[in-house]
């Protein structure tokens, strides 16, 4: 298929020109689309690698997503909620505003103050965005933890952020089953005395054991006053912490501010989705991940958009659920992941073809590289060759989209599998190991050369780690951890992670986190995790384990124990596809595990491929390690 151009009638050449001539003034102009309590004295304070946007400006995220719509859009549905079991709820902008204010006052009544952190562990129900916006209203920093994480993973996150309040539910539905979220929280906080209160939404009506710390959501807000003036917060006031996996140790708390983040979200939501008042938008991401924060909560609500929020799994009760939702709500903009698309594609064309998808006008993809054949299927079968596809590249750390086609701004030819061009005002390059810009069509590392408004402020409580992770490989360039190439038209092609971060079904999992969980088993001496390609999930996890000399457990039992341990310590998303028991792991001379070699072996790649990847290690060394490993692999049933 040749390049595809679909005109939506937008052709604003000025925006890109403005952005190219002076990115700081450009973002200043975009920030004026928001409502500020007071203006800023300085647009950007860049003290590398720390950026403060709109210094001196006062703003509130809840005010910008709710109050500003009350005059003309109070009756407009903000959230069309669809429960996994088919229930539905409609919340207008006024409903949302009232509920947020009631909860904000209720939080104050239990002692929550500006600057406090609140952990939110909720399923995809309207109380989740309400909780986030109530925090934002009073200047508390929310830390949403995906409701699939285990008690240990949540404990680590609550402990790191020192949240004094946790908001959860009795349970959450997942594929027809009820997950008892409150029990998980009880386990997570049992040694965390600084947690003063747990607020419990009754979603599944599961029997609850309440302690003196626990308060039912309905009881808390029952008598709460529904007027709460939004706090006037500094532009860089921390809006949220979102924990994400990296290459080392425990998950890191990515910290985002307010004014810059909202500016980035306002602009990209408008440009990428070409949002109109009449649109019905549907993003399938869970709010527990960054896509949900930015493009379920903040982006659409800043624009007063109507959106569908869906509670359950995309293929529950069967693989037609998404098409049914699109038909039922007359969705116009659909934003999902390549993993979901690959899964839908597997069921053939008849299923989507049997639904009326004619309301769709724009399609999006996020979270992992989209294979060109999947892109074409999405374009043809779902979009009926009339909807542009935006393939949006970004990260938890970037806050919002960084590379994407922008149908709301300009009409450009699309290339299946390419994210196309950087967002205006954002400077991206592909460089080699030492930071030299690479010629077109050459694979290298994707870096960001200038600060941008949605940029993370730092890592929560760890400025040094922030410097080390993102700003130490290159001087003054942000290191993304991704491979990419730029073609002769200046289009970017994302080529996967360059580091030890895995992307399984679009979820980010750190190999270090997984390995430290495995080696904490008493029979394990060493372990190495890597990802190998998978037709549906993009990547799946393979783990190699070296047992201690005195290990007593048989490997079949051990395999089961390790899987239970991973599910308990991290969550089901980190479950490996396969565990191999080996006698030793191949290492470099400096003692580093050669993960790429393991990956090559597990993927049945040739040794030649590996030697080109590992330039710093002698080919002969790889060869012997490879042979040794092949000999020592004894896969257990
Ligand atoms: O490797 C890139 C991949 O997802 C990583 C960021 O993951 P996370 O912080 O969980 O955020 C995901 C949602 C924005 C990136 O470093 N990634 C994200 N979008 C794309 C992508 N890879 C290729 N194409 C994309 N469109």
List the helices and strands and how they pair.
Blueprint: E1 4-5, H1 13-21, H2 23-31, E2 42-47, E3 50-55, E4 58-59, H3 61-65, H4 70-73, E5 77-82, E6 88-92, H5 93-109, E7 117-121, H6 127-138, E8 141-144, H7 151-161, E9 165-169, E10 172-174, E11 177-179, H8 181-189, E12 197-201, E13 214-216, H9 217-222, E14 233-234, E15 240-244, E16 252-256, H10 259-273, E17 280-283, H11 290-302, E18 306-310, H12 321-329, E19 333-336, H13 338-346, H14 350-353, E20 362-366, H15 372-382, E21 389-392, E22 413-414, E23 428-431, E24 444-448, E25 458-459, H16 463-471, E26 478-486, E27 492-497, E28 501-504, E29 507-510, H17 511-519, E30 524-534, E31 538-547, H18 555-569, E32 578-582, H19 595-602, H20 607-613, H21 619-632, E33 634-635
Parallel strand pairs: 5-18, 7-8, 7-9, 8-15, 9-12, 12-13, 17-18, 17-19, 19-20, 20-21, 31-32
Antiparallel strand pairs: 1-22, 2-3, 4-14, 5-6, 10-11, 15-16, 16-25, 23-24, 24-26, 26-27, 28-29, 30-31, 32-33
Bound molecules: adenosine-5'-monophosphate-propyl ester (PRX).
